[in-house]
Amino acid sequence: MATNIALVGIGKIAVDQHVPAINGSDDWHLAATVSRSGTVEGVQAYTDFDQMLADRADIPVVSLCLPPVPRFDYAQRAIAAGRHVMLEKPPGATLAEVHTLAELAADAGVSLFATWHSRMAAGVPHAKAWLADKDIKAAHITWKEDVRRWHPGQDWVFAPGGMGVFDPGSNALSIMTEILPMRVHLTKSVLEFPANSDTPIAAQLTWTGGVTGDFDWRQEGPQSWDITVQTDAGDLTLHDGGGRLVIDGSAVDVGPNREYPALYDRMAGLIKTNASDVDLSPMHHVADALTLGQRVMVDPFHL
Ligand code: NAP
């Protein structure tokens, strides 16, 4: 029987990905939404989160699609009300607040899932398996997209806690930390801040192990979400955010890309045993990039 779930923060990603993934799954029934203005046709809509928690004891799971800064407060209240919680990426505005949520969830005996949708991209497990026994010579991340296309009118991305280009960049870091067979740490970070922004719009990062990354939110036209890894046994490239894999020039059949359906499959498994999945390693690199960052001022930018 399908489990009732409430979706909170009905904006771009909820509409684009969460609603279709839930509606396409036999595991889930979208039983309510909570949003100040967003709604989903045919689904009971609340504007007050506490009211939904009080009214709907029959909804054991909430999925939080809000931006990172307001998300902690909602997650804390959901856990206190005995609900299992799914967090969009990046899982919080700070590392410490997500550690707090993980402890609260463990104490309450509920599941907390800090999702990383790009890790579910079809090529990622194949890349991880192929790289597992290789000697890594170098790797490069190219993550360049158009912020106006993916975050239309979303001023929060340039406000404190919005993380700027690391909002999408954390997707690349979630793949990097999944597929590389060795641990790396940052040694250099150059961050480009628009003169009118609290968060960077571009970044050039250097890690140990010959790993580098070029992140930019000003790319119009075709978008670039690629990770290339050079090894002692040839080169591997993940394209299209992990959805397409090429090894030594040959395309590998990795099957269809179903990132968000796979996240909801995983959540269905976690709640069966009240287990949690909270891996903060991608966010460690975001925090380190901001800690180590050399600040370069660039032209003001307007969404
Ligand atoms: P969004 O559309 O700006 O925000 C989602 C919804 O959250 C808004 O429509 C708003 O709904 C609610 N909200 C915003 N600020 C709030 C606040 N301060 N307090 C309470 N509710 C608030 O953002 P999004 O693009 O969906 O992104 C949300 C999360 O998904 C982010 O963490 C992002 O990294 C992740 N994500 C986004 C994309 C993408 O392509 N945009 C892709 C993958 C993941 P109401 O006004 O109706 O309350």
Automatic annotation (TrEMBL):
Residues 4-113 form the Gfo/Idh/MocA-like oxidoreductase N-terminal domain. GO terms for molecular function: nucleotide binding. Gene3D superfamilies: Dihydrodipicolinate Reductase, domain 2 (3.30.360.10), NAD(P)-binding Rossmann-like Domain (3.40.50.720). InterPro entries: Gfo/Idh/MocA-like_OxRdtase_N, Gfo/Idh/MocA_oxidrdct_glycsds, NAD(P)-bd_dom_sf. Coiled coil: none annotated. Pfam families: GFO_IDH_MocA. PANTHER family: BCDNA.GH03377, DEHYDROGENASE. This is Gfo/Idh/MocA family protein. It comes from Yoonia rhodophyticola.
